[in-house]
Amino acid sequence: MKPIRPLMCGIVPPYLLENIARRGSERQQAAATRSLALDLVHRQARTAGRPTVTVTVPAEDGPRRTVATADGSTTLPGRVVRSEGEPATGDAATDEAYDGLGATYDLYLSAYDRHSVDDAGLPLPATVHYGLDYDNAFWDGQRMVFGDGDGELFQRFTIAVDVIGHELTHAVTEATAGLLYQGQSGALNESVSDVFGSLVKQQVLGQDATEADWLIGAGLFTEAVQGVALRSMRAPGTAYDDDVLGRDPQPDHLRGYVETSDDNGGVHINSGIPNHAFYLAATSLGGSAWEVAGRIWYDTLVSGGLKPDADFATFAAATVLAAQARFGTAEVLAVRSAWDAVGVTG
Amino acid sequence: MVRSGGVAGRRVRASVDTDTDPDGDWYAGQLATLDLPALAATASTEAGPDRYQYVLSVHADDGSQHRLELGEAGLPDALRPLVTQLESRARSH
Question: What's the gap in Å between the CA of A252 and the closest CA on chain B?
Answer without folding.
Answer: 16
